[in-house]
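Re: magnesium ion structure - here you go.
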Amino acid sequence: MFKKTLLIDLDGVLNQYKGDFNKDIIPPVLNGAKEFLNKISQKYDIKIFTTRNKLKTVKWLIENELDIFIIDITDKKELAWAYIDDRCIQFRGDFKQLIHDLEIFKPWYHN
Ligand SMILES: [Mg+2]
């Protein structure tokens, strides 16, 4: 079965990152992330989208038993059906709206 690809960010989506980046420590897995990946990986090919060290990321995925849901890790914006990120703003074809969305933007953990 053909599966669409999703690129999913690591920090602030799959883990408990709250804006305090440390390149040596990947925060603990976020509650519900495993169940989420389990569910959507049945329909989509999942790639982790991160600039973190690839080996550290692989180790973290294995330790958290998430590796079985993931087909690759990339730091490039590869072709995908959708991108899931804690710091993205969706462009809806309207630049005025985009400026507004940018001005009110906050990651979910800064509420
Ligand atoms: Mg992030």
